[in-house]
Amino acid sequence: MARPNNAIPQKIDAPTFLLHWLLVLTLLVSLATGLRIAADTEQSSWAQAISGLLPQGEIIGWHI
Fold this sequence. Notes:
Blueprint (H helix, E strand, L loop, with lengths): L13 H26 L5 H5 L10 H4 L1
């Protein structure tokens, strides 16, 4: 007896799942450190407004 299309069990491919969330984490770190770098310029009032939420310290290594 054939299964209908909506009854196919879903499988999670663990390496794909882990790589996806690693990519998401990497992009979030890059965004946060990039905003910190932008907040260090004198012209960026919007980035300085959120600078308290951004990472502190030596962030260039994390951004690269």
